[in-house]
Amino acid sequence: MRILIVTPWYPSAEHPYTGAFVERDVRMLAAEHEVSVVHLVAPAHADGGPTVVERDGIRVVRVPMTPGAPRSWWAAARALRRHFPGADLVNSHAATSLWPMVLARPARGRWVHTEHSSIVASSFADGRAARRARAIRRRLFSRPAVVVAVSDHLGQQIRRLGRSGPIVTVPNAVTRPSRLTTRPSEPSGVLRLVAVGGLTQGKRPLLAIRTLAELRRRGVDARLDWVGDGPLRAEAAALVAELDLEDAVVLAGAQRPEDVGKHLEAAHLFLLPTEGETFGVAIAEAIAHGLPVVVGARGGQRVFVDASVGALVDSSEPAAYADAVQDVVARTRGLDPAEIAATLGERFDDAHRLAAYDAVYTALAAGRSPGTVNPQPPSGTLGSRLRGNPHP
What we know:
By secondary structure, the protein is of the alpha/beta class. The chain contains 13 helices and 14 strands. It has helices at 20-30, 70-83, 98-104, 128-141, 152-161, 205-217, 233-242, 257-265, 281-288, 318-332, 337-342, 350-365, 382-386, and strands spanning 2-7, 34-41, 52-55, 58-64, 89-93, 111-115, 146-149, 167-169, 191-196, 222-227, 249-253, 269-272, 293-296, 310-313.
């Protein structure tokens, strides 16, 4: 089948990690299908490179588009129309692709949209602007034949937005290490914590730093490495200094994927007091590396954080997170990393995810609907859930 991927997020020579998860999906699909990509390039990612490139044998056409500029949407829509005739199905990604896709008018029964972003959650804020955004997004999300959500949590939000058509859950890919390393010696001395995420309000790095201070106040010799960067870096550094934690906190900045793995391998526990996640890739990858986790309670991570190897904390208090850290450390002290990683199961492996996408594509190509799937905690295989049977 010929699949056209339309996405505002995709790696380039100058931005090699932007949209890497979309590229991973493209490579996965290319194992079974003929796949091409239209990358809607925002000004911040425009690097003056060629408009047509080839990455790992996949043709990528780069089309300029400014997410907040309607005139730019029309121009992108005109470009998209030129590519539709060569595709059996179009699979757009992320909410910012919806406007040009709607304007380009793909065949309704041949359009799948995959949603990853947290923009849907912002639709439920109070106020006139949020109500207007909610009404617009309701119309936009009603247009694709099928919406794929990367978590049940996100699927529930899209349903709440007002979409009545099929919504299926196909989770993000989770990178697993080629081998699991033995965790550092039992944390009777220094307790090494690691977080992976942007230094942003939603990830709550300041709460993580205050949690570390609370642990140390309790006599725990804890250290924290925060891997990631963002607008709160200066504020985080100032709080570290204020709490006299310069020797206990490392703001490591953005790292290459292989270096992120090294940070995970050197830690005893993953700590991320996030406000909410559409999926929680960093959390899942920490578990895949054999790390117990203490994370925020809201979001897609609720499905895969097993109580035996982690804690979901519904609080914004450092003491609550410190309690959870001490409890999880005590409960998982004797566990082997492989036992922790095994709690993820196979649901995020490419074989399962490809089968899930194929079920959607095959149904649409045959003129059938894959059926409306009400997002819910996993029961059985992804394939059975796609067929609308929550209890196979």
